[in-house]
Amino acid sequence: MTIDGCEPPGRGPRRLARAAGSVAVAALMILGLPACGDTILDLFRAEPPPGALTKDAPPVIETTPVPLNMAAPDETQVGRLRYRGGLSLSSEDRRFGGLSGLTVSPDGTRFIAVADVGYWVHGSLVYDDAHDLAGVAEVQIEPMRGLDGRYLSGHRHRDAESVTRMPDGSLIVAFERDHRLWAYAEPGATPTALTQPDGLSAAPLNEGVEALATLPDGRLLAITEGLFHEPDTVVGWVQDGAGGWDKLFYQVGGGFRPTGATVLPDGDVLILERRFPPVGARVRRFPATDAVAGATISAREIARLEGALTVDNMEGLSARQTADGTVLIYMLSDDNFRPIQRTLLMMFELLD
């Protein structure tokens, strides 16, 4: 989700475009004009110029280590999570940003992210001698294709918000605005459409399925960010095993909304939730067996990032288990192509 619903800047040199976009938004707000729609801000949106939707040269990604707590760099624990390294990622490549969904390979060597402007961003993960997250390498950015094999065009059709890996290695991507679920064999492939959950089309334009996970039995769990059933309950669905979907409900509160999901080795589900404003994120946990037709799921909080802790617009979540049984949790933030925000990639160890 782009927080304000506007398409982010993307033309010209990256820093200039991002700064100019912010100035344009501020000027429009002062004048009382809309910050979206047919305005000067259109000059700074991420609609690539003709010919830009190609597999360009690999981007140069700059990585800056970030502590869990800038004021207390030695702090490593938050709730039931132990910090195992984090990075602020940046690039002059105008395609880089808006990362909204994340999946990490079972062996931890590769990551795949989807951007809400219709790109795949994938590469290798680098670890130090202590096996903490230390960098990324071999990053590639390539446009997503539609059902006809062509590159997606127009922000309504390119707003990829979440991704999950299936048992066969294929990838399911959830899109907002034009709400839908598509299956890709791999990044760059032509997708096939999944049966759409009944009622998904009623989700607000910018608040569709953001929390998407593959359950231990291979069924999908999909939870919306802002399709409310009751004031503190959002709508979700779980596949019924026969090609359809069953509706369920997920309890929220405190200004937090679901933005990511993953499944732990023991079968429990983790949900990443984002709050804005003030900026914050929390991780909650519940048994996968709770995800049944008609259920109202109440998850327990295991960690919260806010205040002095490193946090941004957290949207991507993935988990894996190492050979020695350690469970690692990865989180990714969406910078909305704004200079005051960051693309954070953080890794935590789950403490049971």
State the main characteristics:
about 45% strand; Neuraminidase; mainly beta; five-stranded mixed sheet; globular; about 350 residues; 23 strands
Provide an overview of this structure.
The chain is mostly beta strands and 352 residues long. The chain has one domain (54-350): Neuraminidase. It has helices at 14-31, 155-158, and strands at 62-65, 77-78, 81-90, 99-104, 110-115, 119-127, 133-143, 160-165, 171-175, 180-184, 192-193, 209-214, 220-230, 233-239, 245-251, 256-263, 268-275, 280-287, 296-297, 300-305, 314-321, 327-333, 343-350. Strand 21 (314-321) and strand 22 (327-333) form a beta hairpin. The chain is globular. The two termini are 31 Å apart.
H/E order of the elements?
A: HEEEEEEEHEEEEEEEEEEEEEEEE
User: What's the overall geometry?
Assistant: globular
Helix count from the secondary structure assignment: 2
Low-pLDDT windows of residues: 4-53
Helix coverage percent: under 10%
Largest sheet: 6 strands, antiparallel
Q: CATH first level: which class?
A: Mainly Beta
Please count the beta strands (DSSP E, at least 2 residues each): 23
CATH topology: Neuraminidase
Q: Report the sheet-strand fraction.
A: 35-45%
Query: End-to-end span in angstroms?
Result: 31 Å
Radius of gyration: 19 Å
